[in-house]
Amino acid sequence: MAQERENPEHQESVLQAFPKRERIKHLLIGSPKAVTSTIHYLQAVGYANVGDWSPLLPADNPDEVMSILIRQIFTA
To answer: Based on the number of CB atoms within 10 Å of its own CB, is 35 exposed (0-12), middle (13-18) or buried (19 or more)?
Structure first.
């Protein structure tokens, strides 16, 4: 499956099928443990690599942090 995504012919067919791309932002806010656990879970299920997320940043609540993931998705 990963090889298929790297294949230029596959990428071109995806671009033709979904010519519009849109940015989507995922924001996790919670305790450092909860945010880190969620990031690792999302990697385990194949959604996003740990390194794709921003470092943990302070949130408004002193007991919380946040991390953001920005991805490009194809839209019809």
So the answer is: buried
The span from the CA of 11 to the CA of 4, in Å, is 8
Say if CB 66 and CB 32 are below 8 A apart: no
Residue 3 lies in a domain: no
What pTM was estimated for this model as a whole? 0.70
Closest CA to 31 of 4, 65, 2: 65
**Residue 52 belongs to domain spanning:** 18-75
Instruction: Give the chain's domain count.
Output: 1
Per-residue pLDDT of the chain (76 residues; tens, 9 = 90+): 455 556 667 666 655 665 688 999 999 999 999 999 999 999 999 999 999 999 999 999 999 999 999 998 888 7
Domain contains 37? yes
